[in-house]
Amino acid sequence: MTKLTIVAFDGTRFEIDADNGSTVMENAVRNSVPGIDAECGGACACATCHVYVDEEWTEKVGAPAPMEEDMLDFAFDVRPTSRLSCQIKMKADFDGLIVNIPERQA
């Protein structure tokens, strides 16, 4: 299990034991984290699972792929650390990963 922290817009922290190979979005939905709508179910066809990767993790998590970048155009308040949580697959190297949820989803 890999530790994942999802911080809701109101500051509530959700500490999750994530299975490697699962996505941040899947873990958010499975743990009823508010603010992750995931309308497309993880198909990278919407921007309703938008998160901000903690700055300490952005390099390790990496940049979005071109298709994800296109979807981020529809997200609310996109920042340099923006990612779609359906596109971040958990792995041992991500133990301790922190992501923050924006005020609202697009």
TrEMBL record:
Keywords: 2Fe-2S, Iron, Iron-sulfur, Metal-binding. Its cofactor is [2Fe-2S] cluster. Coiled coil: none annotated. Pfam families: Fer2. Belongs to the adrenodoxin/putidaredoxin family. InterPro entries: 2Fe-2S_ferredoxin-like_sf (IPR036010), 2Fe-2S_ferredoxin-type (IPR001041), Adrenodoxin-like (IPR001055), Adrenodoxin_Fe-S_BS (IPR018298), Beta-grasp_dom_sf (IPR012675). This is 2Fe-2S ferredoxin. The lineage of its organism: Bacteria, Pseudomonadati, Pseudomonadota, Alphaproteobacteria, Hyphomicrobiales. CDD domains: fer2. Residues 2-105 form the 2Fe-2S ferredoxin-type domain. GO terms for biological process: P450-containing electron transport chain. GO terms for molecular function: 2 iron, 2 sulfur cluster binding; electron transfer activity; metal ion binding.
